Amino acid sequence: MREYSPDLTPQWKRPKPVPEVPADTDLVVEVAGTDFCGAVVACEAGTVTLEDRFGKRRVFPLEPRGFLLEGAVVTLTRPSRAPAAPLRTASGSVAVPGARARVARAGRIYVEGRHDAELVERVWGDDLRIEGVVVEYLEGIDDLPAVVAEFAPTADARLGVLVDHLVPGSKESRIAASVTSSDVLIVGHPYVDVWQAVKPSALGITAWPVIPPGQDWKTGVCRALGWPENTGAAWQHILSRVSSYKDLEPVLLGRVEELIDFVTA
């Protein structure tokens, strides 16, 4: 057994305790015994990294009484917790707390139906308000060429259009091809309806059911999944299970982001 050995150093010769200060990011300290002064940029594995005003970085051990804070000796310690990650919007963008909605731009994003508009609002609503982008729905795109002509897009008032079932050879693809303005961007997803853009896993199902041609697709989905044949209520259930971009298929995410970039360029 190790014998106890009392500290016989006179009290007046013992070093006085010094404050312990967490090495939080951007804390500015001097290194005791040197002329190096810098801000904390990292603290890990018993060391702290400081950056001086010229951008030079050096690593120092977290030794007791090893630093000066405003001229007073201190002991730096690791921060009690890591800095909080920035808040994110439902689309994954960095949130801007307290930001006011921007005055609406002249440009617009058109989507086919109300369900499309509600889904875009649920995931990208915060981003759209900051950018001043208004989303409207068309109730189908059969009259898209006339709608575009009436809108009269320009370089300062661009128009983006999101189309369901935009696949080669479809009616939708033929209508989209008839619009040739360089101030209009028409993109789409391959799904029969925007319902399918919600990942099955978000709804607790393995896959969206395949509905034979000739049947109303939404009604067929309700029947196949054992839901009441109320497509409005079914959609509200689907929408309630979407909390962020992670609940949507990548093919829709990419198209909506493309439209936002286009009308805000």
UniProtKB/TrEMBL annotation:
Pfam families: DUF3097_C, DUF3097_N. Signal peptide: none annotated. Residues 20-79, 108-264 form the DUF3097 domain. It comes from Streptomyces flavotricini. Residues 1-20 are annotated as: Disordered. This is DUF3097 domain-containing protein. InterPro entries: DUF3097_C, DUF3097_N.
